[in-house]
Design brief:
2 copies of one chain form a homodimer.
Chain A (H helix, E strand, L loop, with lengths): L2 E6 L7 H16 L3 E6 L5 H12 L5 H8 L1 H16 L4 E4 L7 E2 L8 E3 L3 H8 L4 E5 L2 E3 L5 E3 L4 H12 L4 E6 L20 E3 H9 L7 H10 L3 E5 L10 E4 L12 E5 L2 E10 L4 H11 L7 E3 L6 E9 L3 H13 L7 E5 L2 E7 L9 H11 L6 E5 L2 E7 L3 H11 L7
Parallel strand pairs in A: 1-2, 1-9, 2-6, 3-6, 9-11, 10-12
Antiparallel strand pairs in A: 4-5, 7-8, 11-12, 13-18, 14-16, 14-17, 15-16, 18-20, 19-20
GO molecular function, one term (chains A, B): aspartate kinase activity
Keywords (chains A, B): Amino-acid biosynthesis, ATP-binding, Kinase, Lysine biosynthesis, Nucleotide-binding, Transferase
EC number (chains A, B): 2.7.2.4
């Protein structure tokens, strides 16, 4: 029988009633003839409680013990989901990560799945079991210790299972009903997309649209897993939600798929840096070694052998960045007059596969912002994305103006 | 280095503060030079919450899923205890049942430990780890599924580890400071025992003194594990609590060690049973097959070929017992006029190794009760115990009178 993977996030299994509702959705797919692998998160709030206890016990905790503690919430949901399905007369059983086993690296709290041997679960399907419920977010290291995949890791668990079991599709049930052209709370004209390409979803996911964990999209793209995002709180038709799929499967699409934004970006500038070969390398090596994730970079035109170097990074890494460059200065590696941090900025991005073949998207974006009187501080582009840093107070205005200008409220 | 097993019950690890207090006790033993195996229960209330969810989800639950769910509380405590010890610079790590592995039978929810290979933990001790924290109450079946040992099973886990690792002692930290001659809430003269023999503890444990799980005492007796019961809420000296040990290690002891009682006992009588060979076997086979745990049995003198058969069983099994004998009657296996259930009774027992060599304990017990005007309904005796069933309203009076008569307030 074909295999379907269904993943239910924390809000979708937050209470026994919601677990029952999710189980009913699983029952519908079983009735259609699928053998189903269900990936569950912890009941919402549970993982945060456990993380809180660990932090209170040991601020600089041993990540192996952290993993042993915080993985327990998923085990509870998996067992309860199995019992709920059994009550509905659906043959089901739960599996913890080590039982499958979900083999991961030893990078505790941020482990990567290396292999999921399908034999154990497939042999149970062959015996008549119809649903395998697997605790998401967790695995087992080569040393036999419990690992976790990082927050949101259950999405990655789901996609990895879909790949390992060659599932027909991986349905991610969550508290939103799909992927939108932008956040509906910012633009009332935001439209749910029926389909979106992996590459676009990847840009949107990493740009702050919190629907899917970035790694799960990367994995889906690599293994060509059809990924569907849909709401566990609405009655579902077969084409509900948003399908994340290969570019080729999308017949018609807008040049721009969506407008993303992030408030968690800061702009930092090193003023009056000696402009000589290798200086950029020195600065960004120091930042990298200091654990700073630099996103955008701009270097001003040099004047009298000195220049300004500007970059953006997550707001919560500003202190770390200041320390990294100050240390590099006192070590004589770099030289500058001043460091300026501006946390009052936002990043706006337009994303779309269509940019590859359509020119003029960047020009149009800049015109729209200019017409609204919004000054652009930094620009970066990739093949399918243009991002700008602007004053945070203009963020909503910029999103709405761009959404209108690219006519995202209309389907292709 | 010598190995010590320390077990902390749910109230002793109910909060992060209490886990810290328990960890400090562990640190004291490590400083003395012990390699310590710590067995932890779930934070108090957690297991009940999980059991409640399972019952609400599925009244006739799959015991395998029940075990997968309810075992998760211990995993949380084990990880938090490891982190707490690490914060105190004590090299420690947590182990879940399957990681040790604690090999059990497949009797889910009531599994028995079959083997605990010490190699994994011993090799870590050899590397310098000083404390292995093991999640109590759980193990793994030959099929690789999680099992639990039944409520209170962490005591059994602790004793089994003490046996497998040839520990010097197994310290059970709980919310009382030892084993008493009787319940201090019933007799103000109750005295804490410094030592008690395994056999006596076994009778007291199964008679309703809820300090230790019966199976843990059986196991300790079989493997000659020195078991100490002590409070986690008091400063401890080396001879704190009560040592449960072999008879030979107790130099002086009272003839009677303690007075136990149970309110959860019911008296049932089958009136006018045909008195022919095999009839007792038929009755008690029917009760046994009906899942009734019969404790005491009395058969009246036969008159005109008919007799009354009386037994005691736990109060919550009365309905089951009534159904079992009624079914046996309608199947023609037994014949009786009437069945009477009296749930208004209590069982009082005096227990002591010394009874083996001292006669007259039973006679004295009966005299004491008679002098108080308390009628005895049923009597049973074993080598080291005499139990009687009396009207429940006399329970406290009987306990106090017997405690006085046998001078249990005085040490031997």
């Amino acid at each position: 029988m074909p295999v379907l993977v269904m993943k239910f996030g924390g809000t979708s299994v937050a209470t026994l009633d919601r677990i029952r509702r999710a189980a009913k959705r699983v029952g519908v797919e079983v009735a259609k003839g699928y053998d189903v692998i269900v990936i569950v998160s912890a009941m919402s709030g549970k993982t945060n409680e456990l993380v809180g206890w660990v932090g209170e016990t040991s601020p600089l905790y041993d990540a192996r013990e952290y993993d042993a503690v915080v993985s327990s919430g998923e085990n509870v949901t998996a067992g309860l989901m199995a019992l709920t399905l059994q009550e509905m007369d659906v043959p089901a059983r739960s599996w913890q990560g080590w039982q499958v086993p979900v083999k991961t690296t030893s990078a505790h709290s941020a482990a990567r799945i290396e292999e999921i041997p399908p034999e154990n679960i497939m042999s149970k399907f062959a015996e008549g079991m119809r649903v395998a419920i697997v605790a998401g977010f967790q695995g087992v290291s080569p040393e036999g210790r419990i690992t976790t995949l990082g927050r949101g890791g259950s999405d990655t668990t789901a996609v990895a299972f879909a790949a390992a079991f060659e599932a027909e599709r991986c349905d991610i049930y969550t508290d939103v009903d799909g992927v939108y052209t932008t956040d509906p709370r910012v633009s009332a004209k935001a439209r749910k997309l029926d389909k979106i390409a992996f590459e676009e979803m990847l840009e949107l996911a990493s740009l702050g649209a919190k629907v899917l964990q970035t790694r799960s999209v990367e994995l889906a793209m690599r293994y060509k897993v059809k990924l569907r995002v849909l709401s566990s709180f609405e009655e579902q038709s077969d084409d509900a939600g948003t399908l994340v799929c290969a570019e080729e499967e999308i017949m018609e699409s807008n040049v721009v798929a969506g407008v993303a934004f992030s408030r968690d970006e800061a702009k930092m500038t090193l003023v009056s840096v000696a402009d000589r070969p290798g200086i950029a390398a020195n600065i960004f090596t120091a930042l990298s070694e200091g654990g700073v994730n630099v996103d955008m970079i701009v270097q001003n035109i040099s004047e009298e052998g000195r220049t300004d170097m500007t970059w953006s990074c997550p707001t919560d890494q500003v202190v770390r960045a200041q320390k990294a460059v100050a240390d590099a200065k006192s070590d004589g590696i770099i030289n500058y007059h001043e460091i300026i941090a501006d946390t009052d900025v936002a990043k706006i991005s337009v994303v779309g596969i269509g940019m590859r073949s359509h020119t003029g998207v960047a020009a149009k974006m800049f015109q729209v912002l200019s017409a609204e009187g919004i000054n652009i501080k930094v620009i970066t582009t990739s093949e399918i994305k243009i991002s700008v840093l602007i004053d945070r107070k203009y963020m909503e205005l910029a999103v709405q103006a761009l959404h209108d200008a690219f006519e995202l409220e209309k389907a292709a």
